[in-house]
Amino acid sequence: MKRTLTTCPYCGTGCMFYLLVDDKDTLVGIEPSSEHVTAKGQLCVKGWNAHHFVNHPDRLTTPLIRKNGILEEVGWDEALDLVVSKLKQAQSAGGKDSAMFVSSAKTTNEENYLMMKLARAVFKTNNIDHCARLCHSSTVIGLMETLGSGAMTNSIDCMEKADCIFVTGPNTTEQHPLIGTRIIENVTKNGAKLIVADNRKIRLARLADIHVRWKNGTDVPFLNSIMNVIIAEGLEDNEFISKRTENYEELKIVVADYPPEKAAEICGITAQEIVDVARMFAAAKRAMIVYSMGITQHTHGVDNVKCCANLAMLTGNVGSPGTGVNPLRGQNNVQGACDMGALPNVFSGYQKVTDPDVRKKFEKAWRVRNLPGEIVHTVTTAINAAAEGSLKAMYIMGENPMMSDPDQNHVREALEKLDFLVVQDIFPTITSDYADVILPATTYAEKDGTFTSTERRVQRVSKAIEPINQSRPDWQILCDIAALAGYEGMKYDSVSDIMDEIASVTPIYGGISYERIDMIGLQWPCPDRNHPGTKILHVDKFSRGLGKFSPARYRPSVEMPDEEYPFVLSTGRSYFHFHSGTMTRRSQLLDREQRFPYVEISPQDAAEHAIAPGSWMYVATRRGEVKVKANVTDVAKKGVLFMPFHYKEGPANLLTINALDPVANIPEYKVCAAKIRKAQ
């Protein structure tokens, strides 16, 4: 067997394992890396099965063009020629910003960098975005404003050093299992205190010292009230506040409006629960906040993130082991895609496109002129623009907006109105059903590159087998398109050359090279070749200098339950499947475990509607209705439904609302009004 060390293509934990290939160049298995700092010889069930989808018969292996309504196989030259001509045609008709480029948290850093470069240097638009807009755009903006860096402040191994861990928003044992294991071990072996704020009774809640089941969407009053108690009882860290922060007086004014009694009424909990959380968190010598999309995916997601940062600064829990504000990234390279500038407002390394000096720097490096400085569309506003007819073309690499974006009918309308849609992927998707051109890409097992994990660790992705049939690595496809469009600045002999270019223009990646990251990677910021990488951010000072308290006031979610739609619907992931199910549902073992779409419903609600466990039922919102199986469980709170979004035959995002955070443009996936009925 040939063993190739590589990085897992699923969540952002960043486990490394060996791909096992037999003497016929067939991928046959996986072996965990016992040396890796995160995996430590372990994998979750998805990681153990991360090789099964690679050779699945559904793989896209030849380019396809839609002719007379039917997709036909063509050669690469014909497909790429059409892509370039149609993109240019769309821009000629509607202007440079009438085309949208959608990058991917599933592809490598190098490929995200090139997609960003293609959009800006070749097609002269900042219309470049990816699925971080749907999960952690709130984090990037909220933590940038407060701390100066929109990333996880600490490392995964810091979870073993915390005296108190405050988990709000993620189902860690299912979404990031090996991180969940670290939390469980610290609680059970070291006696760390655990606070879980989650509407659902997730596994971690069963170990928690305090489990708060507040109403979905009331994070701001809950967090503000915790800070109210800490200040009222003199539990704040005054030395840290005076030396390392600013705008504290403004925070005090705002949180004074959220005493526990008032916040408890809004949140649907008791005032004593708020007091208990405040005292436990503030009493810990080292307290850590761990959050994920339960915090970010709201119309007030940026406010939620800022409140988390405020709480950490108020108690001095930033810049040391076992502390920090730690957003867990949901996909293998969502952190890296952000780092690479696959966002409309920044180049790689979060260098602002609106800064003329930054644009001049990239113009010189890329040997181009007149890089755009205007910010027009995010991926969410682009869908709206397509539906309205002002956006003419989209180039989607490794994303599936028909499954992942809110209000599926609205997305369908938008894609149908486009003059041109190209989809670059490894499998057919619901999105590719609307494509004019489909380009077959390779999986992680068939290419080289890097992913950046949730703890900012840049790690190798290594080719184990040759590309299947005519599929090509994404980076080669992007370079070919640039050349056909007349740009000579995207010709590379290898992906390591691309990383060298990234390092040359991206200060936080300045010291990163393939030679340095072969085994365990490096954590950014890593400014030069002699730098060891950075385990913990903001140690002596914040990235912005002083940490800034940025208080927020409560704004209710856009769509609340009423008489007609009395339930709250929330969405998320399950243990066995991943996002739109493109990969995991093509693994026989994983699909066997959770084959059908389902909804979690409390025993009380099920009984009231005569719904038996395992029976079929309907969930409806103002946007549509889906048929799912009833998972009757005390994990669900009365009046609240939870649906995973992995199933195209029961799509949760047919139901969700297309309401956006006004700053981050992130959709409100966690709260919308719903009703249910028993299937006949």
CA(first)-CA(last) distance:
53 Å
Report the count of strand segments: 28
What is the CA-atom radius of gyration, in angstroms? 24 Å
> What is the total number of structural domains?
4
Instruction: Please state the average pLDDT score.
Output: 96
What is the CATH top level name of the largest domain? Alpha Beta
Number of helices: 23
Main-sheet strand order equals 5-4-18-17-16-6-7
**Which class best fits the helix and strand makeup?**
alpha/beta
Q: What proportion strand?
A: 15-25%
Helix content percent band: 25-40%
Unreliable residue runs: none
Name some characteristics of this structure.
N-terminal domain of TfIIb, Rossmann fold, seven-stranded mixed β-sheet, six-stranded mixed β-sheet, 31% helix, globular
What do these coordinates show?
The chain has 680 residues and is α/β, with parallel strands linked by helices. It folds into four domains: 2-48, N-terminal domain of TfIIb (Single Sheet), CATH 2.20.25; 64-133 and 334-523, Rossmann fold (3-Layer(aba) Sandwich), CATH 3.40.50; 137-328, Dimethylsulfoxide Reductase, domain 2; 567-678, Barwin-like endoglucanases. The chain has 23 helices and 28 strands. A seven-stranded mixed sheet has the order 5-4-18-17-16-6-7, with helices on both faces. A six-stranded mixed sheet has the order 24-26-25-28-23-27. Helix 3 (109-122) crosses helix 21 (495-505). The longest helix is centred in the first third of the chain and has 19 residues, at 76-94. It is globular. The model has no long low-confidence stretch (mean pLDDT 96).
